[in-house]
Amino acid sequence: MNIQMLLSKKVKEAEPTLDVSGSDRKILQVACQDFTNYLKVHWNLTGKEESNLELTEKIEQFYKKDCVEFEEFLAIWVGMWLKKWKQRVKLIIG
Fold first, then answer.
1. What is the pTM assigned to this prediction?
2. What would the pLDDT profile of 17-51 be if each residue is shown by its tens digit?
3. Where are the beta strands (DSSP E) in the chain?
4. b or e along 9-34 (b: 16 or more beta carbons within 10 Å of the residue's beta carbon)?
5. What is the longest distance spanned by two Cα atoms in the chain?
6. Which of 22, 35, 54, 73 is most buried (most C-beta within 10 Å)?
7. SS3 state at 94
8. What are the distances in angstroms from CA 18 to CA 8, 11, 35, 51, 55?
9. Which residue from 90, 83, 82, 68 is spatially nearest to 11, judged by alpha carbons?
């Protein structure tokens, strides 16, 4: 399971005008980093030495337990993230 691929799919579904495999790749990279940071905070893994390994294990467990629920959660998270992303971009440009 590759989080970047799943996020790429969900971002593309939510915002079809983005080319996350090409010119808009940076947006996908920021989304991946924000998602992993969100999960680290949510699962209280910040500041731990092995947090990346533990995070990967927890994501895999969640995905294996109920992949449909995980993908629904990811779709909701991406929707909220894109809304905030657009606000950030608007502030920087404006």
1. 0.87
2. 999 989 889 999 999 999 999 999 999 998 888 88
3. none
4. ebbbeebeebebeeeeeebbeebbee
5. 44
6. 35
7. coil
8. 10, 8, 18, 31, 28
9. 82
